[in-house]
Amino acid sequence: MKEQFALLRIVDPSGNVIEKKYASDITTEQIKKFYYQMMQLRIYDRRGKALQRQGRIGTYVPFEGQEASQVGSALALRNEDWMFPTYRDHGAALAFGGEIHRLLLYWAGRVEGALPSLEKRILPASVPIATQLPHATGAAMAEVYKGTDNAAIAYFGDGATSEGDFHEGINIASVFKAPVVFFNQNNGYAISVPVEKQMNSETIAQKSVAYGIPGVRVDGMDVFAVHLAVKEALERARLGKGPILIEAVVWRYGAHTTADDPTKYRDQAKIDELRDEIDPILRLERLLKNRDEWDENWAQETKTAIEAEVNDAVEQLEAFDAPDPADMFDHVFEQPTWTIKEQKETLLGRSGSSW
Ligand SMILES: Cc1ncc(C[n+]2csc(CCOP(=O)(O)OP(=O)(O)O)c2C)c(N)n1
Ligand SMILES: [Mg+2]
Known about the structure:
Blueprint: E1 7-8, H1 28-53, H2 67-74, E2 82-84, H3 90-95, H4 100-107, E3 121-122, H5 132-146, E4 152-157, H6 164-175, E5 180-186, E6 189-190, E7 193-194, H7 195-198, H8 208-211, E8 215-219, H9 223-238, E9 244-249, H10 268-278, H11 280-290, H12 296-318, H13 327-330, H14 338-351
Parallel strand pairs: 1-8, 2-3, 2-4, 4-5, 5-9, 8-9
Antiparallel strand pairs: 6-7
Thiamine diphosphate is lined by residues 88, 127-129, 156-160, 187, 189-191, 256.
């Protein structure tokens, strides 16, 4: 199956363009755009981890290593398309136009960070695994009924393919030819469970066969390969040809979340050693160097500008008024059930002024 679903790679880890037919798409402007966007994600992500360690936000989900798959896919979308991210895809949300301080508000446990974006159709992160797949199918079908050619993208991990919602979302999308891209990031782990223990399929892309849709396997550390695969999938979907399953093979460099210790279940030192070789941002640096287009000043200025942007966002985050404890109960259902009402009364009644 690995032969049938061969890995699409355009730029190799040493920064060489290996798929010559795409060479003309690889302009300096495009490389720098991807570089900027991935660097923004990395700086934001590292700050997120630091804020958690400092006790300034709650549990945080890092995505370091997955910048190329999140940026390449998000930048393939059109403004009006729908994005259904998981908790790990706030990088994709940021690349699609999400605001840094709103993303951080989410990790601070604030309802303001979970409101759908008014500017872009970015749904709040799905924490219950795979539940966003049927949602994405529904949104895509609604666009067809409305007569638009807008599409949806559903993000999900390798572990999510073991959920019923994965089947239901893809099956219905296939039957109704819904314009949705099922974008899997196979980072090899569902928390501590390696993908080999999760499934007997050699690839995730091959699961497309069962639904009668195309499946594509890409090097998720290659932003150009991801961008091309998602762009082509979206174009096809807009023409009414139905959904596609894309598997982006990526590395999760660090822990599952800030509440996890990966050294308990994998050889973390080996991954730390590999990072330099496989890194998606270094790949673009090497690509620019190979073209004699690397500009150290530009790289430094880019970093400085992003750091300032992230600092501003942290200030915005911390300038928000203290959260209202009632938020915890008020946004579970449109109309609260009696159980939620009772919980709210119990907590707010008992806690008195301690809030
Ligand atoms: C329905 C459901 N079951 C279990 C969990 C607990 N859980 C949280 S993350 C996770 C692993 C998901 O792995 P994967 O889909 O590969 O995504 P990744 O975290 O690697 O991005 C699990 C099982 C959950 N959030 N929702
Ligand atoms: Mg995973």
